[in-house]
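Please check both lines for our workbook:

___
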Amino acid sequence: MTMADTRTHLGWIRSNAAKGNMGGLATDLLRAALVDTGQWGTGWDEILDLLGALPADQRERLAGALAEGYHTVGGRSGPRNHVLTMLAVVSRGLPEDRLADERLKQLEELGRQNTVWYATRTDVLAGAELAAGRRLDPAVVAVLRRTGMDAYRRSYVADLMKQVTEPVLNVGEEWAEQAMGDASTPDGQALLAHLMTATASKPSAKWDRQAHALVDNLGTEQVRDAALSWLALVGRPRTHPLDPKPYEADINNAYDPYNANGLRGLAWLVSLLPPHPDTARALGALVETSLKKVTGLGPRNPKVANAGVIALSRVDGEAALAELARLATRVTYKATAKLIDGSLEAKATTLGLSREEIEELAVPAYGLTEVGQARHELGEFTALLDVQGSRAVLGWRNASGKAVKSVPAAVRRDHAEELKELKAAVKDIDKMLSAQTERLDRQFLGRRTWAYDTWRKRYLDHPLVGTLARRLLWTVDGTPAGFANGELSTLTDDPVTSGEEVTLWHPAGRDSAEVVAWRDWLERHEITQPFKQAHREVYLLTDAERATGTYSNRFAAHFVRQHQFNSLAAVRGWRNKLRLCVDDEAHPATRELPQWGLRAEYWITGDGEYGEDTTESGSYLRLRTDQVRFYPLDAPENSAHCYGGEYRMRLRDGADPVEPLPLTGIPPLVLSEVLRDVDLFVGVSSVGNDPTWQDGGPGGRFQEYWTSYGFGDLNETAQTRRALLDRLIPRLAMADRCTLEGRFLHVKGERHTYRIHLGSGNILMSPNDQYLCIVPMSAAGGPQAGYLPFEGDRMLAVILSKAMLLADDLHITDPTILSQL
């Protein structure tokens, strides 16, 4: 309907209203409802005001005419809504409530939406229900509350919402519905209402006092049990799914924004209760759940995550400190990470320790009484908690010492609480092992040193960290040492029992013979390192980099998946901003190295055009990569347009530009670790290692790049992989079918001979180097290949898995693979 049409209808409506022609007015209103979507802006409000101002006798006649003509507008929701809204205005104060059932059905339909546009005037329909003496359906209340949180629409529902106080939380989220069911008493309802007042960035003293008073009325233990059970339900699928609009985010995986304040209050509340391990666990989970990405939205709710961090910082004890330290290695959302850092710094200052020391002291034992082991007697049975590699395993033995496959029924019956705590400890250990592995892997650039006795206590002999530290190599007073056969020893197995200073061993700057010797030592003792250390790639300056002088092009001209790149960068401690296809600038991906006074930059830019090459929100799907540079830590940062263009240094107050530092002056360890990070970003997120892109991706424009990357020269990581496979393959059952030649692992099957590229994992098969697409499973464990000297190389697992499959190609059953053979 055009603006002219709208003015025409308004003119007819005004004319018939002025004449008192209710029959004609009803016809005009019904016609307008049919041809217009109802988005009339101020014109819509004018019509409703006009109808409400009619004398009662005219409104009585008009109400009857509208009710009689309601069926003529058909089954579309919009026209029905318009007629019912007009009827609700016309019927105010009249004795007969016409079409009440139809109005109720219309409200139920609207209750499946996230929010409603103000011009639909749902507030009028809802007000008519209240005027009729009926309560609004909780789902309708929820949609009106969410609508009222939009500043632009708030005024349209503000007066109505003053009349609606129940339910105290919005329905649709499992935690909220459980909370309202549990807190059904007046005191419980008062507690929930108080939680909803958590609108500030942190709780005030007044808020805490009121919370304490409410807890005293209900009982501390009762409140804790209930609150922790509610927190355990946060993030579950909605109990009342909403109908998303095409332009909306994935609203069914987002938090209800109205309930979010209640979640913040819930986090603050549990932090006021006496410390308990379950409290720290629940708050840590709330932080991570609240930062999970939602399509079209980003993190679910950073404010709730921040409330969880603040709550953890207010809880005394080892468990809360451990959660903060664990989150420091996992959280990449900038504002929340900064809050975690501030909390740990504050704890460190209070205790007179450094930030590094507080992170080390924050790691609990989780009930482990020896390094990686614990025994718990539960009646006639013994629970054995054992850390095996990167995970904890809970086993059982009966009174005679015989292994029991599953949890004994007697334990489930008589020791339910102890069993619950043991299972929780297993999960806690798995999470902390992952966090500590990441923290230790970052220590190479931390320039960290330890006094020998302190190091033994916090690392080598720590019940949990010791399971990692005993699989790494260290230097004691400059002498490399590893842990084997129950003691710390040198390469020649001479024991190391004392010392002054300990550092983490790194292969950069080491003689190649020493590096190879330590690899042999690990293999001889069958030690699997938690990450690459002895087999760690060392990146040395190339002739090309010496020629360019101040920048490296080693990882330029690649096409990488932006969101995967961004996640990897955050995990490795780099700061980066997603590139949107808008007129905006961004800094390069940056890693600050304060211990060295340096800053590393990796220059990237968005690739493609809006639409096919972006998400719906406009963020690029892919990036193009460029130079790696180093600057002094305090140098101004460079920036460039997100959609491409030259990087320039933004200067203030007439400052002079700062030139990039010569690569020859960068410490070898720093250069190697930074380039290793960048190699990881490209190696994992490049479109060239995607087996489904053999057609070159959108428009085939990446065909040349995909081919050159997927079958080209090996980078340092792939060369390390090749050296390992050279030692590993002779021990495998398929050894007689495998050979290493150049960049490929050759596998002789019955149907074909296959060549697996050691960098990308892509496969060519005889006789004409035909491409074979095998998409690996997302959790690439693959067949077990026996002993491996390190964890974490997913591509190695993919290559071995493909090789084992193809060596026995007569038994392949996957139809997708068979159709290509």
About this structure: The radius of gyration is 33 Å. The first strand starts at residue 293 and ends at 294. Residues 416-441 form the longest helix (26 residues). Confidence is low (pLDDT under 50) at residues 779-783.
